């Protein structure tokens, strides 16, 4: 300081004071008088001591600040913090890019005018397109500032420059983040947990519904500006733009930008979906006048001036104008010119590629070719970019770069070898705006800013083996090969022998703490191992490592891990990788819906891959072995899979289609075009292309449950009706709503039906007492038919007739063009019955109607024994199937009508709810309440050929096309896609137990007993150790329930006839004891043994018998009944029972009631009721506690001494059994 004047000293003093006053808690002031005596001696002990203390204090202060920040974040809302970080990123980026706006004011005014005109009407999104570097992003940033002046200052504007952050790179993250911003800004409910942890579909549906809510309820406008949709991750199918609404409701505006590519890209997709020319705005090159304007603006921003001669040279280089990117690059070179440089010595690039190459040449001259080529190469090779700290670590591992830097002088230390910090700081400054920041994996990363720059770097520095070398070193870095003090040798020009030094690079563990994962390693390492060809390391560290599996799934989801396998499959033909990838896709819905930890992942993987271990020991065998080891070492109670009982990859279950927020209510499949439409209880519809099994469109227009949907026009259009009384017509090519009609049926609870007359361009909607006919082209009402409450309707196009059937069998025929009544008739014998379902036979001009008491009208066959639930027709109208109770009866069309096709009905162990017949009439598939799908061969007289389990909910909807089957249920927000021609060797073991709620087990679980599927007169004995069927027991009637006395070696079978069979398990012959039924001969609903196996409780619909079990030969003897009691609930029957000591019986009802009955005292104690049928009961070992489960997924823990509930919890969409 003594060498400088008083003015300099004062300036320095003022700077110190400003720094300390700005942040007094963070800035420490050090006064070191002794240091000034020998300031130039680096070996001074005083200096060394001072530096060591300073470093210690710096480290301690930094640690204190970091730990304090982490403590302050504990208990905070991580999602909101991510939102604020994302908003700050895009706002800062928008301000920076908006500075360079020049010209284009006419284009900006046109866009603003279009936004203003569309504010009060439905309109398409606006698409901004142009060539690379044309300034689309700058235009959008300027538009973001102009919109409030156009629509009002209260307008909510959301800007996202796509691809510049991880949360703006996939549709799911993008839309969820936008919803988190918009909902609180407009006072709307925020996305729930289902959207947060769900998939792309749930976030898209919530986003679409949010836009409708904004339009209906808000007085403020919403403007969403999305730049560069082509930058979205292609692995998510984002380029198909199924997530983007093709029309915006009033008060909602969406503006997107994309490249004007000649090939098939987002712009072509948008033109096919949005044909209106007024929705498109092209960003053209700047004119020569605008070039002058932009040059002037850039000079002002840079605080530079060019000489008149230099300015003329610059302008004359672009006589016809150009794109802003090229002008910015040219100006970045021009601003380095000295005023004395002659114009003849200056050169300006006339293309973007030329400018990029010129930049690289200048950087190489300033910093060395190796440093520049390797630095840019690492950035280009990275998956998401690199942070500055990572890049400095990676360059410190690069021996070539270090040799270039230390070619004239040795490194300062022989134990530590690092890249000098100043070298990177200078290079970073000179690269300038060709690098941009991108937020990903909770880091701020650096990436190449322009596509053209990335292409130049790729061609200039990454040709041949150079790319592999970059990936090899990146893989070493993210594996942590040279961390934790591991020394790496280097040969430097200034040293005579190799230097073995510590590079001091950051370690790379999978977990930084119990809750913080290393997302950088998770996202980067697989990509670099694959790109560098290190397949064995890839299998060892990633693909065959269950620790990696668990960390990756918990941190970023199962889909991201599946994407890693997809990348590997593209580069190698390994069937094991495909099987593991398919396993991840199968377990994804479970992981998304459950809040389980690592145990769920290990269970899913082992239970799905167990059967593949003998065939694929290298990868799958290794994974399963790790799962077994993890279970063995797990300190918590876990259920360990002993065999592959979940649906395996390459098995019948191909995939699970998710996306709905609530259960599925309707399915419609067009076999010609392979298009599937599904409707949900949340009012939304989804359209899938079933050839590739990918989402085509999300359709939102209804606000209540979708009741019916019909496709026509060979699968190009669809009409849907919902409980809110709306009727919507959809274009399935574009995904746009053509019109929406407020029908007159709002609130009707009757069956909703739709019929489309394509020839006459009429759609008929029926619900309750009205039939409305609407013109497809104009949405005008053609006519309305009013009268009785019609439960079944059909339209016969050739005869121009509308047929309706009302309660009591009233048949009416109406003119389908005018709505006039032609004929009315009362069907005989149906006065006390109501229509329940119907099917139309267009070829015969007839309608088959199923009634509540089993009648099938207009069919020549006998009366069915109970209510008809459904009737389905084959494609050629030669086969008819009717479902009633637990049976399906199949009929064949003849000259005089239909007659029975199969000698016996198809028997199920549960209420049959759906059926579908194959196009070749050889197979019928049925779904029932027992959560399984049954496949029957019609060519083999109704032989049950397969049972598909694992649906987890009752199957109520089926759609069959060839060998592809789609199943759904209102109880689950997903659809399952099955392949009926799968390889049977991949079938689950043991077979699906679809016909009983709880199988019986004996011999410590080594044997399982359950009724045979399709023939419940037989009991299968399954050897769970050998994985084979051991034996079969015959019963005289269908088996309803089973119970095993483990100590006494007895199997009890309750029959539908009311009889009780007792089988000795150790007897070589079928020595069966039969206990006859009571006089009522009602079926046995449930049985329960006491824990000491001394009593047996047998429950009928309203009767419970308690019998004593005493020793006897050849088997124990049942005495009694000792006690008998009846329930007092006539509207409900017993569904589950448990037997306690001292003849106490705990029983649950189908209505949800729960009771504890003391038989000796004839005293009943009610417990708090469930909301639905009690499905299971279990008691603790000392019988102090009891656990009950019900159909609504609720489980309750009870204190039986106090008859009081202690705990209640549930599991979504899973019935407790």
TrEMBL record:
SUPFAM superfamilies: P-loop containing nucleoside triphosphate hydrolases, WD40 repeat-like
Annotated InterPro entries: NACHT_NTPase, NWD1, NWD1/2-like_WH, P-loop_NTPase, WD40/YVTN_repeat-like_dom_sf, WD40_repeat_CS, WD40_repeat_dom_sf, WD40_rpt
Domain NACHT: 126-295
Domain NWD1/2-like winged helix-turn-helix per the UniProt entry, residue ranges: 351-465
Pfam family, one: WD40
WD repeat residues: 657-698, 699-740, 1167-1201
Keyword tags: Repeat, WD repeat
Highest taxon of source: Eukaryota
Protein name (record): NACHT and WD repeat domain containing 1
Source organism: Sphenodon punctatus (Tuatara)
Lineage: Eukaryota, Metazoa, Chordata, Craniata, Vertebrata
Chain's gene name: NWD1
